[in-house]
Every structure is written in structure tokens, then in C-alpha cells.
Amino acid sequence: MDTTKKLNGIRLPAFLRFEKASLTSGEWIVALLFLLPALVHFGLFKFYPIAYSFALSLHRGRLLDPFDRFLGAYHYNFLLQDSYFWQGVLNAIVYAIARVPVGAAISLALALLLMNNFPGRLFFRVAWYVPVVISSVAQVQIFIWLYHPEYGVLNYLLTQMGFSPLLWTGHPNTALFSLILLGLWGSTPFTMIIYMAALGSIPGDYYEAAEIDGANAWNRFWKITLPLLMPTTFFVLITQAIASLTLFEPIYLMTGGGPLGSTTMPGYQIYEAAFEFNLWGRGSALAVIFFVIVLCITIIQYKFTPESYT
């Protein structure tokens, strides 16, 4: 009996066939029992909250009676015409554009540097990875000290170089930039480790062959390293873009959305509406709109990325 099957002219063994399996009723029951814990988990902690938030966004939404009055699309119409909401969306996009590409470039440069063999390499690897194991609250507190207008290290350095001290988190022109610096410091080590793992998986034969052909270090980087790192770069850009667009802790702990709304973002606006102003329906509508925005951005990134990289 022939146990192979042709696929694009290649005969595959039987265990690689993708054929529809026919299960008995008992096998279906056993399969469902094995799947039941995962189905319950996704139902309770994924799908139910999404459905509940969407239903709540169609109501006035109060703490004691969330579904006390049906308003339909009122919250959505209000938010789409609200300048404060769009200011938050714009701030989130600017933050993501400034943080994600710059962070990926810095991470790749550090990964390339730390992959070289030099004295103290292990120390620098560990030292640069420290922000990953520090909680976000501790990270924010460190930067609050650095940004302090009177005794902060950054203002001390500026005055030593002859510049005037800055109100890093207290002025609309510098507050968002302060959050970007914090985001770069906190996210770069994680993406650096990802790039180091990807660099370690590139066969050394490629570099040896290119070196024999006369390619210098710059050509080897552009012709070998960067193309082979594109799947990793795609992963880094997607995950860091989502993390940037959903920023909350630094805003809550450092700026409170100010000054003058210069650091407010949808993630913080959801908290404001629901937990500060007790507008649960408004906060749920914000969450739904922001979910759609993040989903669209992710789909656009995926569509414009070459298929071979995904």
C-alpha cells in the first residue's frame, strides 16, 4: 500500500498528510473534556469581558446599576466629536512613532555590540538587562528623581553644560518627551535580548563565505544580518507598538495626563472615565474604540510586511 502523497511534486510520508479525521462520539467527548479547561478560561477571562464591555458601552453605566439606561451609540458619537479623546489618540501615535523605531534600532545596535567577545561582556549584558526585572513603579520613581527640577541629575548636567534647567514633566513641550525617554530605557533591554537570540541563530557559514568573497563588515550587515533579522524585527515592531499604544502606568504615576493634556492617552482616559468620573459606559466605549484602533494598526503593519517575514 502506498503510504505517500504528492505535494507540489514531492511525495510525502503518510504521517505528514493533512486529511480530515473522522472521530467517534466517544472520541469527541474525550477531546472536549481535554479542551474544557482552555474553553472555560477563554470564555470567562477573554470573550465574556469583551462582550460585557461592548454591552456596557451602549448604556449609561453606573457603579450600582451598570445597565440602568440604554443609550445606544451616544457614547461613541460623543467621543468621536471630543477633542480631548483625539488629543489622547494623537499623543499615543506620536509616542509610538518616536519610541518603537528608535528603540528597535538601539536594541539592535546593543545586541550587535554585546555579541562581540570583549572583556566585561557578561557584566554589560546583565547591567543593561536590569530595567526588565525592575517593576514599572520603581522605573517611574527613578525617572521622577532624574527629572526633578531642583536636584535632578539631568538638570544638573544641563546647568553644568551652560543650559537652563527644564521642567521635564511639568511643561507641555517636554512632558511627552520625558515619557518617551522612560519608555526607551524600560523596553530596550527586552528587545535587545530578542535580537541577541536571533543573531545567535544565524549560521556562521554565511559570514565566512561573504568574508571570503571580500565583503566587509558593513556589507555583511546589510546583505546577511539585517535580512535574516526581518522576522524578528517584525515581531519587535508589532509587540512594541501595541505596548506603546496601551501605555498607562507611567502616565498615571508621573504626569496624570498633564500638563494641559500633553501626555494623556486612551489607556489613561479609560481609567479617568471609569474610575475617576464613574462613567462606566463612557469608559467601555473608549476601550472598544481603542481596541479597534490598535487592531487596525496591527493589521496594517501585518499587511505591509512581506509574507516571507511573517
Structural class: mainly alpha
Q: Alpha-carbon distance between the termini? A: 38 Å
Q: What is the averaged pLDDT score? A: 84
| Biggest pleated-sheet summary | 2 strands, antiparallel
| Major β-sheet strand ordering | 1-2
Radius of gyration: 26 Å
- The number of distinct structural domains comes to 1
For the record, what is the CATH homologous superfamily label? MetI-like
Q: Helix tally?
A: 13
Helix content: 55-70%
CATH topology: MetI-like fold
Give the SSE string.
EEHHHHHHHHHHHHH
Taking pLDDT < 50 over at least 5 consecutive residues as the criterion, the unreliable ranges are 1-7
Q: Could you name the CATH class? A: Mainly Alpha
Strand count: 2
User: What is the 3D shape?
Assistant: globular
| Corresponding CATH architecture | Orthogonal Bundle
Q: In percent terms, what proportion of residues is strand?
A: under 5%
Briefly summarize what is shown:
The chain is 69% helix and 3% strand. With 310 residues, the chain is mainly α. It has a two-stranded antiparallel sheet.
